[in-house]
Design brief:
Elements: H1 39-44, E1 49-50, E2 55-56, H2 65-80, E3 88-90, E4 98-100, H3 107-117
Antiparallel strand pairs: 1-2, 3-4
Length: 136
């Protein structure tokens, strides 16, 4: 069981081993004592147009800040947490060998996320696939 904690997944921006990162930015600072992300990754997680995944939170119009903070927190968890081992799943893509699936979310967090984003809109059914990247 211990081998599932204190590890970093094999993905695009993750460090190979968790360790202290005293300069983590904003919402990612929660993991500064033991992180799988670098300070630069934590800063990029907060940018509307981030180099991390060439993705813009405002791709369908301005996302309200109260909604965006939940997506930023999700990104910080994914990039920085050394405790996602129980949910690591093997994948084989050009940019990562591992991902996380079915990470539990507290009911209160889920309900707050819904409340904060209920009036936001998206122009895409599934953010994980089906994008046309030909124009960059």
């Amino acid at each position: 069981q211990d081998s599932l904690l204190n590890i970093c997944m094999d993905a695009k921006h993750h460090k190979t081993q968790p360790g202290p990162e005293g300069q983590l930015y904003g919402q990612c600072a929660l993991w500064k004592e033991n992180a799988c992300c670098t300070a630069n990754t934590s800063l990029e997680a907060h940018q509307d147009q981030s180099y991390l995944y060439n993705f813009n939170w405002d791709h369908c119009g301005a996302m309200p800040e109260k909604c965006k903070r939940h997506f930023i927190q999700d990104t910080c968890l994914y990039e920085c947490s050394p405790n996602l081992g129980p949910w690591i799943d093997q994948t084989d893509t050009s940019w990562r060998k591992e991902r996380v699936l079915h990470v539990p979310l507290c009911r209160e967090d889920c309900e707050q996320w819904w409340e904060d984003c209920r009036d936001a809109v998206t122009c895409k059914v599934n953010w994980h696939k089906g994008w046309n990247w030909t124009t960059g």
